[in-house]
Amino acid sequence: MRNKTMPLILLFSITFPSFIHAKKVSKLPEEYKKWLDQDVVYIITPKEEKTFKKLETDKQRDLFIEEFWRQRDPTPGTAQNEFKDEHYRRIEYVNKRFERGTAKPGWKTERGRIYIILGEPIYRQQFSAGQDIYPIELWFYHGNVSQGLESFFYVVFFKRYGHGDFELYSPLKDGPNQLCPATSHQPWDPRPELRGMTQREMYESFFGGGTSKDLAVGGPAYAILYRASIDLAQASLSLIPGGSSISPVESDKLLGRIDTYPQKNVDDEYAYEFLESKGVVEVNYSVNYIGNTSVVKVFQDESECYFVHYSIQPQNLSVNTYEDRFYSNIKISGRVADLEGRTVFQYDKEYPVEFSKEEIKQAKLIPMAIQDSFPLLPGKYRFSLLLQNTVSKEFTSFDTDIILPEIEGMPQMSELVLAFREEKDQKSLKSSFKIGEIKLYPSLRKEFTPQDTIYLFFQLSGLPEELSEEGWIKYTFFKEGKEQYVKKRKIKEYEAGMNFLEGFSLEEFPLARYTITASVLDKNEREVLSVEESLSLLSRIHQRPWIQFKRYPASGDPVYSFILGTQLLNKGEIEKAEEELRKAYELEPEKEDFAIVYARVLLSKEDHGEVKNVLNPFVDRMLSDYSLYEILGEAHQGQGEYDEAISCYQRYVSHEGANFRVLNSIGECYFQIGNHREALRAWEKSLEINPDQPEIKKKIEGIKKNQ
């Protein structure tokens, strides 16, 4: 294993493939040929295509197709694959929209290809055929810079000589002359030095003023296009608007990057791994639910913060193999919701598991369990957990109610934990089922043998002084409703604090099912508090699981203030959330997520100046969450700094794409600085995304009325 000091928890079964001796298929069946040559022709990588063509059976091809879509799934923890759904929506759209007037199906057209790759443009303009220009469509996109596209760019389609299918326009290969009947038979040389201009002069001429003299320098075709649309004229020379260079070569490079764009969004190394391992271990990619055994307990740490501790042992999880290594990857997705169903806290964690051939012989019959813990505010919740084996698509889950008392000063007793082992752990780091210096290993099945020592653990808090000094703890083992064993100890005999641990040898106990109670008695031995659990004492049990868990920072680390602050924010307790989030931010102001969430709270209080102070140090850095620019844009807008706000919003859109809220903000900023043309463009695009916006419609009508 990669980390032998961290025991693992999971029961393996190695499933050998049913297709090892399957009959080879010499010719690709029609349905798979259609999938390869039509459905995914624009998004499949060369490596994936090469692998798919080498597969020998339909079973292998089905498994590969499942994995192909899984590699692109933006939310693998859910039943829906949004990428796949959107891809087939685009195919359906282009087949309906672009096959009219052409002998080709819509997906084979140039417009269909670009739409399938890039999706819906921010806006599109259509220019009908006339005496001056051929039929043209101008599409405007925002691009993902991290994936090689420009922040904003045009795509132009035209009917060459006015008839036939729409073709993709290239400023380098075609040039403005090809867009106009009067100039379409004239050669176009895109090199500015041959037109008697430097690159800079050409840029200033075409994009700077647009005077009649400038247009004449640009050539007659450019002048014709300029009269039809400024954007169209600019796009005829450069698909990249507003740059410092209008080299048509850069536009052609952009068109090439569009073709390879889908390949940059997937790591296709899995394809070769699939090909290598297909004859050794078959992964069952159908969604398989498997059972589990689990336990969930809540305890307080030394700071009196509640922590939810849980352990889950899935049944019969599979492993895959590659080059004599056996591996699996476990993904845990947790969600805590309040009684109204609102999410208070959620998280995803992964646990990679790997064995050598020698280790798997020992591990394949040993169960494994995943343990974890997280802080949680007092309240009543529903805790849901999903465990997925991302290698085999097996999954299991549980749901349970959690009640964390909010009343202080009242005597309280936690649930009882039955552990088969306890040990001292003096490390300051936290981990699951570690309370103070005590590390517990609970029995998930609550099964023990006479050779075991059972450890009972619970917590007490809020005890009055008299009860602490003169009260008792009573342990009772019941067999078939009758007392089998009783033990009492004075509360003050235990070490100071809220943690109570007691061990019992089971050697003299007869095999049976027991109920154990732990009770708090006053000085007169009257019961004040009590909890109980059941267990089975058996002659033999399954082997104890290997346990995998993560370690976390000690109490006082700012990460806990951040988690609790986020939970308070989700519950709508803004003032308390601000206090916790400020504490986390001030301790670690360089942490991006601390700064962003804290800034959101400040923004809700309209503290725009402080939002800028918090977020400005992150500007121009590589970010993992580009919502920072949206928040910063709102802060600038709130202080009337509209140019700065527009810049922030545009940086957000270039990375995350447009949404109607951001477009509305961009429109408002442009409106405030008097640029009604850009305001109109932003608001109209917003309505395309969300038509149900009466206020935006009124603003658009107001602009058009005054034009």
> Which structural class best describes the helix and strand composition?
alpha+beta
Structure summary, number of beta strands: 29
What's the main sheet like?
A: 6 strands, mixed
Question: What is the number of domains?
Answer: 3
Query: What is the 3D form?
Result: elongated
The fraction of residues assigned to DSSP E strands is 25-35%
Radius of gyration: 33 Å
CATH architecture grouping of the largest domain: Sandwich
Name the average pLDDT. Answer: 84
Number of helices: 22
First and last CA, distance: 71 Å
Percent range for helical residues? 25-40%
CATH topology of the largest domain: Immunoglobulin-like
**Fourth-level CATH superfamily of the largest domain:** Macroglobulin (MG2) domain
CATH class of the largest domain: Mainly Beta
Q: Unreliable segments (pLDDT under 50, ≥5 consecutive)?
A: 1-26, 192-200, 206-217, 278-287
Describe the structure.
This protein is of the alpha+beta class and 707 residues long. The chain folds into three domains: 121-246, no CATH class; 288-552, Sandwich (Immunoglobulin-like), CATH 2.60.40.1930; 558-706, Alpha Horseshoe (Serine Threonine Protein Phosphatase 5, Tetratricopeptide repeat), CATH 1.25.40.10. The chain is built from 22 helices and 29 strands. Helix 2 runs parallel beside helix 11, helix 7 (212-218) packs across helix 8 and helix 8 (220-228) runs antiparallel to helix 9. The longest helix has 16 residues, at 82-97.
